Amino acid sequence: VQLQASGGGLVQAGGSTTLSCVASGRTLSLYDMGWLRQVPGKEREFVAVIRRSGGRTYYADSVKGRFTISRDTAKNMVYLQMNNLKPEDTAVYYCATTTVVLSGIFDWNNYKTWGQGTQVTVSS
């Protein structure tokens, strides 16, 4: 599977934006789909994931209540709706696949196929 993320850009603090990730090659229904992010000089970190079975979602505490992950299986796409953005949300955001057990979904090392990343910059 190949992934391509889009939708990043410059957003004011308190604003909203939606990231999109389109897959090609294989259906996303085979994978748990995650969004992860990275700030220069820091490790990648987990943001959100949507499970392939049942569609249950999980979030990092830092984004819970502000971000929403969703998927459209028919379009082979995954989205990240980001509301009430904060300057500390500034990062490159990646969509990625995983098939790891539940306890492993919060570790970015368990994500195997990554999109190219899209920059989100939140101005204060």
Task: Please tell me about this protein's structure.
The chain is mainly beta and about 120 residues long. Helices cover about 0% and strands about 50% of the residues. It has strands at about 1-5, 10, 15-25, 30-40, 45-50, 55-60, 65-70, 75-80, 90-100, 115, 120-124. The strands form two sheets. Strands 2, 4, 5, 6, 9, 10 and 11 form a seven-stranded mixed β-sheet that branches. Strands 1-3-8-7 form a four-stranded antiparallel β-sheet, with no helix packed on it. Strand 4 and strand 5 (about 45-50) form a beta hairpin. It is globular and about 40 Å long. The chain starts with a strand and ends with a strand. The model has no long low-confidence stretch (mean pLDDT about 95).
Keywords:
124 residues; mainly beta; seven-stranded mixed sheet; four-stranded antiparallel sheet; 11 strands
SSE blueprint and pairings:
Elements: E1 2-6, E2 9-12, E3 17-24, E4 32-38, E5 45-50, E6 57-59, E7 67-72, E8 77-82, E9 91-98, E10 113-114, E11 118-123
Parallel strand pairs: 2-11
Antiparallel strand pairs: 1-3, 3-8, 4-5, 4-9, 5-6, 7-8, 9-10, 9-11
Largest sheet: 7 strands, mixed
Shape type? globular
Oligomeric composition of the shown chains: single chain
Quick check: average pLDDT?
Answer: 95
**How widely separated are the two ends?**
37 Å
Q: List the total number of helices.
A: 0
Radius of gyration over alpha carbons? Answer: 13 Å
